Fold this protein.
Amino acid sequence: MNGQIPGTHLFNGQAAMKGYALNAMCFSFNEAANREAFLRDEAAYLDKFGLTTAQRQAVAQRNVLAMIAAGGNIYYLAKLAGIFGLNVQDVGAQQTGTTVEAFKQMLLDQAATPAAREAAHG
Amino acid sequence: MAKVIGGLLTSHVPAIGGAIQRGAQDEPYWKPFFDAWPRVREWLATARPDVVVMFYNDHGLNFFLDKLPTFAVGAADHYTNADEGWGLHPFPIPRGHAALSWAVIEKLVEREFDVTTCQSMLVDHAASIPLNLAWPGQDAAPVQIVPIAINTVQHPLPSAKRCLALGRAVSEALTEWPGEERILIMGTGGLSHQLDGERAGFMNPDYDKFCMDNLGPDPEALTRHSVHEIVELSGTQGVEILNWIAARGAMGNSVSEMARTYHIPISNTAAAVMLYETVVAGAAEQTHQATAFA
């Protein structure tokens, strides 16, 4: 069972190398001063970390799947999303091509399946 | 002699920290999860642990991809939480127990786990939120901690079998520790969830139930899946079950389940809280005849 898992992108060595600059930028957002610097001058901030063209485009478009394709790791991308006030439901909705409301409802609906009920009640 | 008294496993979703800081515990969305905790706190009040050995994963607060250890053991008397980038206020972190950390490190390396040792380490929400759930309030939990971080971020990840063996080696160290401390094992993360990709929002209550049913009596059952299989069954972040598996290894040979809560969803996650009491300490290999998850 080592084949591709549908809709899933394992963050492995290859992705980690490809995504290094993008993830390094996102890691810097642990500091509020860096988040402010990004918001003040986004292009200059991207230059500072040497993002690739694909990474720059993905960030400009706020396109999470494109960021992942460019090596972004979701734990680091979450720090970038946080700057725009986006949480993991917003990011999930974007990646699955649905509305945030529909994505949240999809999460809630999973509580109603027989398997979920059985897991919840032992 | 030191005594391992049990184990506490819980989800560590950052939104839980937000709910605590907003005082939202009684809102309908949050109540089913927070209702797990009075029972746990009651047990803790009786069990009175002095030390928590915490298995968790760092999400890019202390470790970046420049240097990313597979297993890292904190070896400090002081740890802090910090801004992780999305607005959660840092929680207070209990004092470290550096002497016990070094005893754990000695044993792990003796058992051929060549760990990274950290005399300076930030601990993130995966440690701070569970401690605050167990001991709520403004003050740090009244325990000393030994944090052990497992890489669940960048593949290759350690296998479930390796994580269980790591926990059992920690158990040996704790059993041999000459102090009088009462030690609680904690493991955090999970259960099934996936934040990234077109499968974002995936959860799998069948697999979660398999984990919750087997972890206590037959932790080997969880080690028969490869990391790749666990990701398929549990989601890219559901692989945090590795922290639970390591924690189970540290709890001792035989445990008794004291409490279990499972609730969908917290944020994008199937949330769970489990409490075990250690019945028989020690870390010898066990033999099992369990059915693999199908």
